[in-house]
Design a protein that fits this description.
48% of the residues lie in helices and 15% in strands. It is of the alpha/beta class. It has 2 domains: 68 residues, no CATH class; 174 residues, Vaccinia Virus protein VP39 (Rossmann fold, 3-Layer(aba) Sandwich). A 7-stranded mixed beta sheet has the order 3-2-1-4-5-7-6, sandwiched between helices. Bound molecules: S-adenosylmethionine. S-adenosylmethionine binds next to α6, α9, β2 and α11. One of its GO terms (molecular function) is methyltransferase activity.
Length: 299
């Protein structure tokens, strides 16, 4: 019997991609976040070439070739902007302002990459990733024609716009005015999508029992950065705003913490608010490596 090949470590995105654990897009975004340049990525891949090239190797090579100028631009931008997403904020208001400034600059540079670096600035890659999130929500019965949805940390509004034809209303909230300006343009065809600025401190402005779905796609890690009190206020506000049977869906709960700590938080929220924890830490997507949590208010 052949021994199982060793599982590549987390600091080897190329190995993880070749082993089928992450997509080529996510592998490239992880390398960019590790400050590897486009040329460095191409050289790294060349060292892993086999004869004939494996299909996953070829997919990575093709993507690098197709997005090469964008990879160079994004790698310079990642180095310039810095990445301190996992660092806790000392003051929640100042922390939210700092995060808003980061995203104001990011959206001016590349709207698609500002919400999903793994899109590599390509609208088609982002559309594929958005579609897999929508399909997953749909398969879980979370999209209904009569549903009212909060898109928490809506960014450029790619999810608000994608949800719009499927639900009754969408409210997109964000701390970044730059993101909201881009979202207003993208959601302009949908009068039942409302976009508003939030201080990022709580969800106190939401009416009680007014929503069927609170969706936080890759925004909760920034709320976590603002500290446990801000997290607790957001969870309590979301639960208060949900109708019976409604769901809080968090896709990526934190950055840089281990998955057991995230799952423990989700269990604690469920216990504190009488929610059913239906999904705790799955990675349901093929393109994006987002981790899913679904908490449902009993019907
Ligand atoms: C990585 S982007 C994701 C945007 C969008 N959910 C998507 O997936 O396309 C994170 C977004 O969360 C927003 N954000 C960060 N902290 C926030 C907070 N406390 N309240 C609301 N939005 C926040 C950022 O401004 C940014 O637009």
């Amino acid at each position: 019997m052949q021994p199982n090949p060793p599982v590549p470590s987390d600091d080897d995105p190329v190995g993880l991609c070749l082993a089928g654990a992450i997509s080529p897009e996510v592998a490239l975004s992880r390398l960019l976040l590790g400050h590897v340049t486009g040329a460095g990525i191409a050289a790294m891949l060349e060292q892993r070439r086999s004869e004939p090239p494996a299909p996953r190797w070829q997919a990575l090579a093709d993507l690098i070739r197709a997005r090469r100028p964008e990879l160079e631009r994004l790698s310079a931008e990642v180095v310039r902007a810095g990445s301190n997403h996992a660092r806790p904020a000392t003051d929640p208001l100042a922390g939210a302002a700092e995060i808003a400034g980061f995203f104001d600059r990011a959206v001016a540079n590349s709207p698609e990459a500002s919400v999903a670096l793994y899109s590599l600035g390509d609208p088609a890659i982002l559309a594929t990733a958005t579609a897999e999130i929508l399909d997953w929500l749909d398969a879980r019965g979370l999209l209904r024609a009569g549903a009212d949805v909060l898109d928490l940390g809506c960014g450029i509004g790619r999810l608000s716009a994608a949800l719009a034809p499927r639900v009754r209303s969408v409210l997109g909230l964000d701390v970044s005015e730059g993101m909201l300006a881009e979202a207003r343009t993208r959601c302009a065809p949908w009068p039942h999508v409302h976009l508003a600025h939030t201080s990022g401190q709580d969800l106190d402005g939401l009416a009680a029992s007014s929503l069927d779905l609170v969706l936080a796609v890759d925004s909760f890690p920034y709320i976590v950065r603002l500290g446990p009190a801000v997290v607790a206020r957001h969870v309590a506000g979301a639960v208060r705003a949900l109708r019976p049977g409604g769901a809080l869906v968090v896709l990526n709960l934190s950055y840089g913490r281990d998955s057991a700590a995230d799952a423990a938080d989700a269990r604690a929220w469920a216990a504190a608010h009488g929610l059913a924890l239906e999904v705790a830490g799955e990675r349901p997507f093929a393109l994006w490596d987002g981790t899913a949590y679904v908490l449902r208010r009993p019907g």
